[in-house]
Design goal:
Rossmann fold; alpha/beta; 7 strands; 7-stranded mixed sheet
């Protein structure tokens, strides 16, 4: 199974957070960055957001569209690399976008720059990379299934943070 085809912990908690607190995305333009199966993007769309799911893998984009259709919502998709570019979004969802140090070093400066432009940035992460998200404000914590454990037998605390 491709690494993006299951619901990673960060995506799980972002989706739960948006279902619990729709005011963060309702009626807004949302970018689901590194969307994979688009769990958090679907949650945003279910809450009335206009959603663009961005993933470099064309198969992930196809899965995002199929998942949206199966859930009665619509999402747009792109396979463009958005890092380093300003995006036309009011909210960015980044589930598990910092799962290794090299990736965190690439993604966090871009997310921080978007936040400085006034874009709300919501990050879902179990804090795999020590110190990477130290400056972020924690909004909520949920227990989420460990990476790739579809049965949910192993859980770990995973956080919704904002930059």
């Amino acid at each position: 199974m491709p690494y993006w085809a299951f619901a990673w912990p960060g995506g799980q908690v972002l989706a739960r957070f948006l279902l619990d607190q729709p005011q963060w995305v309702r009626g807004r333009r949302v970018l689901d960055f590194g969307s994979g199966c688009a769990l958090e993007g679907l949650a945003a769309a279910l809450q009335g957001a206009s959603v663009l799911c961005a993933d470099l893998d064309p198969q992930a984009a196809g899965l995002a569209r199929r998942n949206a259709q199966a859930n009665g919502v619509t999402v747009e998709t792109t396979t463009e690399d958005l890092l380093g570019r300003d995006v036309d979004a009011e909210v960015i969802l980044a589930g598990d976008a910092c799962y290794e140090p090299a990736l965190a070093q690439r993604v966090l400066p871009w997310l921080t720059a978007q936040a400085a432009r006034g874009v709300r940035v919501l990050v879902g992460d179990p804090l795999r990379v020590p110190g990477a998200l130290d400056g972020a404000r924690r909004l909520s914590t949920y227990d989420a299934s460990f990476d790739g454990d579809p049965r949910g037998l192993t859980v770990w605390p995973t956080h919704v943070l904002t930059l």
